[in-house]
Amino acid sequence: MATPVMNQAADQAAASTRTVTLGKSLNLGLRAAMEADPKVIVMGEDVGKLGGVFRITDGLQKDFGEQRVLDTPLAESGIIGTAVGLAIRGFRPVCEIQFDGFIFPAFDQIVSQVAKLHYRSQGRVTLPMVIRVPFGGGIGAVEHHSESPESYFAHTAGLKVVSCSNAVDAYWMIQQAIRCDDPVLFFEPKRRYYEKGELDVGATPDPLFSSRVLRTGTAATLVSYGPSVKTCLESAAAAAEEGTELEVIDLRALSPMDLTPVFESVRKTGHLVVVSEAPEEASLASEIAARVQQECFYSLEAPVLRVTGFDTPYPPSKLEEDFLPDLDRVLDAVDRSLGW
Amino acid sequence: MATPVMNQAADQAAASTRTVTLGKSLNLGLRAAMEADPKVIVMGEDVGKLGGVFRITDGLQKDFGEQRVLDTPLAESGIIGTAVGLAIRGFRPVCEIQFDGFIFPAFDQIVSQVAKLHYRSQGRVTLPMVIRVPFGGGIGAVEHHSESPESYFAHTAGLKVVSCSNAVDAYWMIQQAIRCDDPVLFFEPKRRYYEKGELDVGATPDPLFSSRVLRTGTAATLVSYGPSVKTCLESAAAAAEEGTELEVIDLRALSPMDLTPVFESVRKTGHLVVVSEAPEEASLASEIAARVQQECFYSLEAPVLRVTGFDTPYPPSKLEEDFLPDLDRVLDAVDRSLGW
Amino acid sequence: MSSPEQWTHPEPGVGPAATAATPTAEQVIAGLRATSEGGPELVQLLTPEGERVPDSRWDPYVADITAEDLRGLYRDMVLTRRVDREANALQRQGQLGIWVPLLGQEAAQVGAGRALKPQDMVFPSYREHGVAWCRDVHPTELLGIFRGTDHGSWDPLAKRFHLYTIVIGNQVLNAAGYAMGQRFEGKVGDDDGEATMVFFGDGATSQGDVHEGFVWASVYDAPLVFFCQNNQWAISEPTERQSRLPLYQRARGYGFPGVRVDGNDVLASLAVSRWALDECRHGNGPVLIEAFTYRMDAHTTTDDPTRYRLADELEAWKLKDPIERVRVNLVRHENADHAFFDEVQAEADQLAAELREFCVNMPDPPKERMFAHVYEDGNPVLAAQRDAYLAYASGFEGGGH
Amino acid sequence: MSSPEQWTHPEPGVGPAATAATPTAEQVIAGLRATSEGGPELVQLLTPEGERVPDSRWDPYVADITAEDLRGLYRDMVLTRRVDREANALQRQGQLGIWVPLLGQEAAQVGAGRALKPQDMVFPSYREHGVAWCRDVHPTELLGIFRGTDHGSWDPLAKRFHLYTIVIGNQVLNAAGYAMGQRFEGKVGDDDGEATMVFFGDGATSQGDVHEGFVWASVYDAPLVFFCQNNQWAISEPTERQSRLPLYQRARGYGFPGVRVDGNDVLASLAVSRWALDECRHGNGPVLIEAFTYRMDAHTTTDDPTRYRLADELEAWKLKDPIERVRVNLVRHENADHAFFDEVQAEADQLAAELREFCVNMPDPPKERMFAHVYEDGNPVLAAQRDAYLAYASGFEGGGH
Ligand SMILES: Cc1ncc(C[n+]2csc(CCOP(=O)(O)OP(=O)(O)O)c2C)c(N)n1
Ligand SMILES: Cc1ncc(C[n+]2csc(CCOP(=O)(O)OP(=O)(O)O)c2C)c(N)n1
Ligand SMILES: [Mg+2]
Ligand SMILES: [Mg+2]
């Protein structure tokens, strides 16, 4: 399964291919979704005239007007709570939460209404809404601007959670999320907003809820998502120079997870390292470890190891290089796994 | 470690011993804490005149006055946010969240302030506050009254999380939580409020952050907390009748977890089943599985299995018997583990 | 010291700052009155004694109400109450897990409910059985929630009556969003415009979500009527625990009108609701209505109000019963005879019997319901969980487990 | 159509319901003026031209201010601004990750800050560098937050100045709780009473937490001054996106007074803040102050205001500069000479140099800081994580990793 769209695009280098940053790609994807469906609206703090603090919605208000791109009052529960109402009315709201740390005022609406309404109404009410969240650290920001809250949402039944790791996926995944009839938490790796990719808008994307093998290898498997995927690819490249071939899997979908390729990979390599920036305790990394040890019990030659953020609040940014999993920590874990 | 206080109390049957329900025991513990320290205050919805919807704070306002037992306005963020201020001022607030499902409006204050203030202030500000949450299902309630949100808080660095499973622990643990200088989420197994125990108020309790072996066995280990502990004890009793001796461990502390007794047990039994009502994905049960497979890799004769609530919203109560782990599901998992 | 007027209408530079550190007895009384009695601004068209009081501002909104219409409102209230009492009894008999009584709030709800037009949308809280009735949600459709077989069984879109919302305040924001949508779609601006009405209690006004709903609706000129039933209690807490001022005055700080209506007066509730909906459908929303009423029963069947309020209070409010005053008025003006009242009574008994019959025969939900409709587009992980569980559970079939 | 007065003062039965579906030009203008201009209720004691305007209500609160005191306020503002500009420059030069400028808000903050007594407590937002100055938090102590070495390095209890709070609105509830505590401890009721002041912006008023803070403080008569600096922008959003009405009027709905003060007038800010704190320390709290001012720089150093506002606006506000009007007043009344101004300038330069020197020499935090103080009572699981990481990291010592 899962032909890597990235490579496809790079290979073709067709007329429709252009070099874009991940951020720009999201902008193009949002624009395409708004053009395709007049019910798609964008809402959040500063998403209109300013185009969002990361400029992801740049130019959209100018072209689609103030009733489709809403600069909302400053309150996240309000943003999500009114988006629920708009979705009930038949709109497809795409909400921007300005930074990861500011999703918590909306937590109640997300957990109590967004996640449950379809279930409560026995399917009579659908909530096709997307909540975009720039997430993760590595940009030298002040407090509350570098959180990785995705595990909270993966633990919440009724939500779908995805994260893109590169410019090409960003374009497709945001559109697929908007087309999805379930509420989707869309985590954007903010420190990768300026990473470039070759986008072919004529290509056929993978399904939204599929993980993808980005690099094949036989020694051990690395699984990750969002901003850490690049870290894993770099780790694999470094390992390859020393003759160790690592398989790298980009999860893409965090809930539901598509772990089949991971199981297959572990059956082949016998070693798994999960990499994520979020604190470790009761996290998505824990979930992957729990499921892989169950599915691949007899294949594992070492326990599943986790390389994650620490179980501390996000530290002052001068310390974030220590907090965030980096190449060395990933390879250290690989070594520990191989030497188990 | 960890002498079972329950058995101790039962054995002694001293003059100071009395039979109390878990709910009453909490009430006695709160009263003792308020008597011991005038800075302890109780706050929440309906905790005063009514004594709380479960009567856990019954009589406290009458005896300690309206400035130590506050019937607050109806807003959870307000309850927790003002408790933070009161704690900064030197009080030790004990907040009641009326039902598990209503903690979410306070999630932002808990995650952004309660969990982080001590860290942010480099230890200059301590927040000795307790957030009491009646949690879990099994009481035939309507929506939002049967949630098990403990994993969200275990995933949040800076918080401590505990859950009592019986009347005797309830008395000690609530007092220990109030004496703790860190913020503590205190999860009360509401469907066990009427379970009785023999309380000896002269006994010496175990430390708050310690798990406890409640029953020893050699075939397999059951680990659980809160309301499911009783389910596990019943499962072990049933298994014993068929000649299978299960070890049962009550986690008591959910964050940080005291897993040493679990590791020891698994090294002996080779089989572990984790039981919890919360949905499975990215949960405390996942964390336990992840850590045990790492610590006991060579001891496990089968993967760690989880028996949990399903990854659905909490169902209509006529279906909760299917949702909640019961004796049959626990023993089925034990069988699967033993037969792996 | 400060007069009640000053106390309840503080403006910059006028009157004392607020309550004093140790309020005077006068201040306390003024404060209590402010939050718990009508006051001069209470809209009332029908006194507790059934007398019709003229009101130049509000009469036009009920000028078209014929004797037949009034009988209709009476019938709505009687049937609503009968359903409420029957459900309460069903709970006592173990047929329902819990019931949330509306006893005493029939006029507030039926007045509001009958003011609604078909194109309007409603977001209820959890006690709006009377509004449900007016939206053609059959009382039997409410039972699943309280029996534990579902979380709401009517079609919220078809009935234009959203599911009950239990998390206090949530629905206010959802309603604000819906009303914004009505506006964005250009469905606002004339007599046929659409409007939304959202219900919440006095206690709910403290929640951040309710405030944010006020902010959003006012900033987006949403056609939204905030209908606050102040039944004077949030479980055991009286309204003074939520506010210094009468709640309708909350609207002042946001720049939209707030009106306090006698919630035990179905005509007044109808008039004020019609006006408010009209304002909204013409684009002059939002509007806040505080319906001043009283919860004559417990908060829910699991509550014990004797622990926090005096029986006297209830007795006083029985004299203001919302149904009684309409009956007296109908009788006094000879707009209804014995036969009518008997008929309504019979209809009520019939409905109650139907409700009971339906309730005791409700099948338990199938196990599959636990897993159904969590997602619209499916979820393979959950599907596997479901399949495994159903396969496992089928092993117990026949024998109880 | 409706006059501005009606538009901004809707009361039940008076004026139109709210804005019309399609507001008239007049309404739009009235609305904008309502949220973005002072209006008759703006308290001003010193005009932009430096003239002292008499005001019978507010003069008593600054009657004791001598020429020396006024020079002191001038000095506070100049030093505050110098620190702000230096920090801004340090950010441009890569010495700080970000800076949050207060340019233009010096008078609001210094007026409030100097009204505080030592026993009072303060909960700032993230832009209160001027208030910090008045609480003896040295400007160097602010730098860690913006350089990324810590999340706040002063002692909030010793300085009675809480840490900066970035999550909009959170601190308002924390402050309400603290003020409740002051009251519970009996520290309220006379001239020596304690009070709390909490700072937040115009945008923050939309947050549920701010509302709940209003509810709690009013219900518990907390000695809390809500100090809202309306700098007319929440990043790119003008105040109209948050409210139809001037923000000081929000207090009306809760039953405590709200006052709008010229936030560029240090005397007026001082007078109103003293009055408000006095009310609170005597037990008449809470009180809302809206300081009407203007953010003359970007939201933060990462913001680009040219994308959302016109240069004209800034030019107009430069004429209302808070420092300039005090300088003119001092000169006109010969209360300060060249030597004074030169001295202050020199002191400012000295302080700036000190700040710069401190900043560029700030050591990177030790790795242990990441793990320190997560818990007061310790956590063995985290301790193990720390030990393992520090042991691992020590393997890289010497070589960069
Ligand atoms: C967020 C939240 N907190 C607490 C509760 C528990 N609770 C249910 S009803 C209620 C009181 C509500 O009072 P009010 O808003 O006046 O409505 P009423 O029940 O009187 O109609 C409370 C505290 C809840 N449902 N939701
Ligand atoms: C809960 C939350 N949401 C969003 C943000 C991002 N943010 C930081 S400042 C700001 C605007 C604040 O405006 P205002 O309250 O007027 O204060 P000002 O910055 O103008 O002083 C926003 C949206 C935040 N810090 N917290
Ligand atoms: Mg009520
Ligand atoms: Mg602002």
Automatic annotation (TrEMBL), chains A, B:
One GO MF term: magnesium ion binding
Transketolase-like pyrimidine-binding domain location: 20-195
SMART domains: Transket_pyr
Entry keywords, A to Z: Oxidoreductase, Thiamine pyrophosphate
Cofactor(s) it depends on: thiamine diphosphate
Signal peptide: none
Record-linked InterPro entries: THDP-binding, Transketo_C/PFOR_II, Transketolase-like_Pyr-bd, Transketolase_C
Gene3D superfamilies noted in UniProt: 3.40.50.920, 3.40.50.970
Entries under CDD domains matching the protein: TPP_PYR_E1-PDHc-beta_like
The keyword Transferase is annotated on this UniProt entry: no
Keyword Acetylation part of the UniProt annotation: no
Highest rank taxon of the organism: Bacteria
Protein name listed in UniProt: Alpha-ketoacid dehydrogenase subunit beta
Source organism phylogeny: Bacteria, Bacillati, Actinomycetota, Actinomycetes, Pseudonocardiales
UniProtKB/TrEMBL annotation, chains C, D:
Cofactor(s) the protein requires to work: thiamine diphosphate
Keyword Disulfide bond: no
InterPro entries membership: Alpha-ketoacid_DH_E1_comp, DH_E1, PdhA/BkdA, THDP-binding
Domain of life per record: Bacteria
Keyword annotations of the record: Oxidoreductase, Pyruvate, Thiamine pyrophosphate
Positions of region (Disordered): 1-23
Gene Ontology biological process terms, A to Z: branched-chain amino acid catabolic process
Signal peptide region: none
SUPFAM superfamilies: Thiamin diphosphate-binding fold (THDP-binding)
Molecular functions per Gene Ontology: magnesium ion binding; oxidoreductase activity, acting on the aldehyde or oxo group of donors, disulfide as acceptor
Residue intervals of the Dehydrogenase E1 component domain: 75-350
Keyword Oxidoreductase assigned: yes
Gene3D superfamilies assigned: 3.40.50.970
PANTHER family xrefs: 2-OXOISOVALERATE DEHYDROGENASE SUBUNIT ALPHA, MITOCHONDRIAL
Protein known as: Pyruvate dehydrogenase (Acetyl-transferring) E1 component subunit alpha
Organism: Actinophytocola xanthii
